[in-house]
Design goal:
Blueprint: H1 2-10, H2 12-28, H3 34-39, H4 45-55, H5 61-73, H6 87-122, H7 127-141, H8 144-158, H9 174-208, H10 211-218, H11 223-252, H12 254-260, H13 266-275, H14 279-307, H15 309-319
Helix pairs in contact: 2-14, 6-7, 6-9, 6-11, 6-14, 7-9, 8-9, 9-11, 10-11, 11-14, 12-13, 13-14, 14-15
């Protein structure tokens, strides 16, 4: 088991190296010159060239990539061209907002998806199943930013039940913090809930039609015990895989939601960095989000043996 954990952790390294190459190339080919942005449109070419030399932007791409990777190896993701604050300092201030938003959105998505997916699988082709399927397709079709604007209009502008935007930190009280985050979390979590619901319904339908479920019912086990102990546990394997992917998407998908609700999170920070051509900040944040995505999926992989003992047996056999 320990060898498997070490091998699985080491296998993440090539993925992260590939991510660094892709992230650096994407930001390299984004049009625009941060030196020109900082110096101004009327600045002399000598001033712009001086800034480019100072930041190393006049170096070949492989030299810039090597310097960037060397700084990452020392724990330095660079600093902003404009504010001169380090990327880690900027992310450290913004990440708690994004993490709270992603976790709340995931809780809302799971709270909607799990009971809806299970009831739909237990009662297939019923009115509840058809209604949940229709609502799921509507949820998949609605863009997150449009849903966010509608939530602001209804609950923030018309009913005035919740704030229309902005962030209230936890230091000002949990109720005020939750009130400021509930609408963004609903806007972000609705899309994820529809996908989770469809995957859980399909997984439960496969399991409920399996022979061992019929055997458990024939032995006289209670329906609730068959559902919880035998069906749900096996259906959770593909569900957990999708859940890990959705958590990564939620962390990366906060860009639009944070902009709509004016939240000072990582998504809004990276969007402003790209618009201002602050490449050091943009590339550092995108790398951190991608690394978080990989690590979340690594944790999900490591949970498989806990959910399914057959996975643990297969690992022990193959690594013996």
């Amino acid at each position: 088991m320990a060898r498997y954990l070490i091998w699985r952790a080491v296998s993440v390294v090539p993925t992260l190296l590939g991510i660094t190459v892709l992230v650096f190339l994407v930001t390299y080919f984004i049009p625009g010159d941060p030196a020109q942005v900082l110096a101004g449109a009327e600045a002399p070419p000598e001033v712009v060239a001086s800034l480019r030399h100072q930041w190393g932007l006049d170096q070949p791409i492989y030299v810039r990539y090597g310097v960037w990777m060397g700084n990452i190896a020392r724990g330095n993701l660079g600093e902003s061209y404009f504010s001169h604050q380090t990327v880690l300092r900027l992310v450290g201030r913004a990440f708690p907002v994004t993490l709270e938003l992603a976790l709340l959105a995931l809780v809302i998505a799971v709270a909607i998806a799990v009971p809806t997916g299970i009831i739909s699988a237990v009662r297939p082709r019923s009115w509840f199943d058809l209604g949940a399927t229709a609502v799921g397709f509507i949820g998949l079709s609605i863009p997150g930013f449009w849903l966010g604007i509608m939530l602001i209009y209804v609950f923030g502008a018309e009913l005035r039940w919740l704030p229309a935007g902005g962030f209230t930190p936890l230091s000002q009280g949990l109720p005020a913090n939750i009130r400021s985050m509930i609408l963004p979390a609903i806007a972000l979590g609705t899309f994820a809930s529809t996908q989770l619901m469809r995957y859980l319904r399909a997984g439960m339908l496969d399991v409920l039609n399996a022979d061992y479920i019929r055997t458990a019912r024939a032995k006289g086990l209670a329906a609730a015990m068959v559902l919880v102990r035998h069906a749900m546990r096996n259906a959770l394997i593909p569900f957990m895989t999708v859940l890990g992917v959705q958590m990564g998407y939620l962390l990366g998908g906060t860009v639009i939601t944070e902009s709509v609700f004016a939240l000072p999170g990582v998504g809004r920070l990276v969007l402003n960095a790209i618009l201002n051509r602050d490449y050091q900040v943009a590339v550092g944040i995108i790398l951190l989000i991608a690394a978080a995505f990989v690590l979340v999926n690594l944790v999900v992989d490591l949970l498989y043996p806990v959910l399914d003992p057959r996975v643990r047996l297969g690992q022990a056999t193959s690594w013996r």
